[in-house]
Design a protein that fits this description.
- One of its GO terms (cellular component) is membrane.
- Belongs to the glycosyltransferase 31 family.
- Helices cover about 25% and strands about 20% of the residues.
- The chain is α/β, with parallel strands linked by helices.
- It folds into 2 domains: about 200 residues, Spore Coat Polysaccharide Biosynthesis Protein SpsA, Chain A; about 240 residues, Spore Coat Polysaccharide Biosynthesis Protein SpsA, Chain A, CATH 3.90.550.50.
- A hairpin with a 6-residue loop joins strand 20 and strand 21.
- The two termini are about 25 Å apart.
């Protein structure tokens, strides 16, 4: 099973059996402004339109989310509704190929359709919503696509205009959109559509599906681990027993120099809350002659669990000469012109070009204990540099996510050692029992090049 080596090109087959007029459906491809994602989105749009020509002379409207406005926060969808998407009725992810779909019929009622996920236990990433019985609330798996009928879109657009969006933070978009649509019970629940699937396309279970999954150098990555003296004996040994061996270049940064690990003291005191001072010292060291000249910088916490080989495969999709910032994207104040940021616990990945631009801009911490990930997000936003989301990075533990959400992933990271055995979690979710021969490695390098092209 080599799916971990094909992360960047995992795509959907989507079956479209056309309604009487394709103009009744507006397709929104949930694209991002990074060049790889733009290319993928444009391919998906071309595939969809080519299909449509065989059915009708009237092509559907196909829009790319990243190009709908200049507001960076519009990836969170709800702020976009009043301005541009009154005719919205369908959402896709950039990893879809369109072929044929017969699950959606546009009706004159409020419909919210998708593949439902639910929380098996209350979780911090959803602010412990429905704590007494979290499984009663269903939200859509974006990887299977989701749909809204026009009457629902119109009502949501009017609601957004009349009522400011309440939450400052955007953490899990699919859950937050579903909560907004549900509207404390006044709006529709998510209706399950069995044809919206996330099984592999060659699976026996795929015969009824409109959507299916199609699965798509150490020396290039420098890994910076943020730690402190009190966690040297508790957290660092977990890294050494799990993923440290997969990183060619790795340094531990602490408030205390311990040669037995070893750790490096950057001269920044430990802080209980944010770690902005330490992170910016890491950025400066990354560009110095003190460390190898590498293309990518990965910054993680000492309680982050990560698969370096899977990260290598994912990064092969991106151009390190571009300003790339990659990880699990959160948002702050997006409906009021806020900004996106890569949440730190799941791992923050920056191309060398991003680090150069950040530091040359004069961007800096307002205090050593400022939240480093949010400060970096503000800086990137001020510079007009994109933040690229990958759902394979995770700010929380596996049990904090819906089982079906993780079932079709090859995850790259999880975060926190709280109430878990972190080594067991790593072995279950992130360890690949795979040793490749030289010929196999050459084959996979060739395969990556073919997939990207």
């Amino acid at each position: 099973n080599f799916t971990s080596l094909a992360l960047c090109e995992r795509s959907h087959i989507f079956v479209l059996c056309v309604p009487p007029d394709l103009r009744e459906i507006v397709f929104i491809i949930q694209s991002q402004s990074n060049s790889f994602h733009v290319t993928q989105a444009e391919r998906r749009r071309a595939d969809l339109l080519e299909q449509a020509r065989s059915f009708t002379e009237k092509p559907p409207v196909v829009l790319l989310l990243h190009g709908l406005s200049d507001n960076e926060g519009d990836w969170s969808i709800l702020p976009l509704l009043p301005q541009q998407l009154i005719q919205l009725s369908f959402m896709l992810r950039t990893t879809y190929e369109k072929h044929c779909f017969d699950a959606l019929k546009i009706l004159k009622v409020e419909w919210f359709l998708g593949k439902p996920l639910c929380d098996e236990e209350s979780t911090i990433i959803h602010h412990y919503a429905f704590a007494e019985n979290p499984s009663i609330f269903k939200y859509p798996d974006f990887a299977a696509s989701w749909a809204l009928s026009i009457p629902l879109v119109v009502r949501l657009a009017n609601k957004v205009k009349e009522e400011p969006l309440k939450s400052d933070f955007t953490i899990d978009l699919k859950h937050e959109v579903a909560l907004y649509i549900w509207d404390s019970g006044k709006g529709p629940h998510l209706t399950a559509v069995p044809e919206l699937c996330t099984v592999p396309e060659d699976s026996p279970q795929a015969s009824h599906c409109a959507t299916t999954l199609k699965p798509v150098n150490k020396e290039d990555i420098f890994v910076a681990v943020k730690t402190c003296k009190k966690f040297h004996s508790e957290r660092v040994p977990v890294i050494k027993k799990t993923w440290e061996k997969d990183a060619l270049f790795l340094e531990y940064y602490s408030d205390h120099a311990d040669p037995s690990i070893p750790t490096i003291n950057l001269g920044v005191p430990n802080t209980e809350r944010g770690h902005c001072g330490k992170t910016f010292a890491i950025l400066q060291r990354f560009l110095s002659s003190a460390v190898p000249d590498t293309k990518w910088l990965l910054i993680v916490d000492d309680d982050t669990l990560i698969s370096i080989p899977r990260l290598q495969a994912l990064l092969s999709c991106y151009d390190s000469s571009e300003p790339v910032s990659l990880g699990e994207r959160y948002g702050y104040g997006l409906s009021q012109g806020g900004y996106s940021y890569i949440t730190g616990g799941g791992g923050m990945v920056f191309s060398r070009e991003t680090v150069v631009r950040l530091l040359s801009s004069g961007c800096k911490c307002y205090s050593n204990d400022a939240p480093d990930d949010m400060v970096l997000g503000m800086c990137l936003n001020a510079l007009g540099l994109p933040v690229t989301h990958s759902p394979l990075f995770h700010q929380a533990r596996p049990e904090d996510y819906a089982r079906d959400f993780l079932a079709h992933q090859v995850p790259i990271s999880f975060h926190k050692h709280w109430n878990i055995d972190p080594i067991a979690v790593f072995n279950k979710w992130l360890k690949d029992d795979f040793t490749a021969s030289q010929d196999e490695l050459l084959f996979f390098h060739w395969l990556f090049a073919r997939l990207k092209n």
